[in-house]
C-alpha cells in the first residue's frame, strides 16, 4: 500500500545503529513510502528491517550525498532524515554541507537527530 511520500534516510557511521533502531521503532509509519538511502546506510536498514524496500545510491563519500541532493533539487524528496555525527571528521564534509544546504534551500523537513525525527513522526507527516 503506497502512502506516497519519498523519504531519504542517511546516517554517518557512528550514527547508523541509532538510525537503524529509529527505523525499526517506526517501521509501521515508514512502510509504504518510497525510501532512498546512501549505500551503507541502506544496507544496514535492509538487514535490520527486511520488510522495508530501500533504493540505494552510491555511498556518501563516493557521491551518494550528492545523488540525494540532486533528488531534492528535482523536487523528488519529501523528507530528509540524516543522522549526522558532529564529533567525527568526514572526508566528504563539503558534500554533507551541500546536502543539508539543499534541504534548506528547497524547504523540505530535515531531521539530523533522533529528537527531531521523533517529532516529525509525532506530527503525523507520514500518516
Ligand atoms: O556518508 C554518508 C553521509 O554523509 C552516508 O553514506 P553511507 O550510507 O554510504 O555510509
From TrEMBL:
Keyword Transit peptide: no
Membrane-spanning parts: none
A GO BP entry: methylglyoxal biosynthetic process
Chain residues that bind substrate: 12, 16, 59-60, 92
Reaction it catalyzes: dihydroxyacetone phosphate = methylglyoxal + phosphate
Active-site residue numbers: 65
Annotated keywords: Lyase
GO terms, molecular function: methylglyoxal synthase activity
GO cellular component: cytosol
Signal peptide as annotated in the record: none
The keyword Lyase belongs to this UniProt entry's keyword annotation: yes
The protein's Enzyme Commission number: 4.2.3.3
Known role: Catalyzes the formation of methylglyoxal from dihydroxyacetone phosphate.
Annotated PANTHER family: METHYLGLYOXAL SYNTHASE
Name assigned to this protein: Methylglyoxal synthase
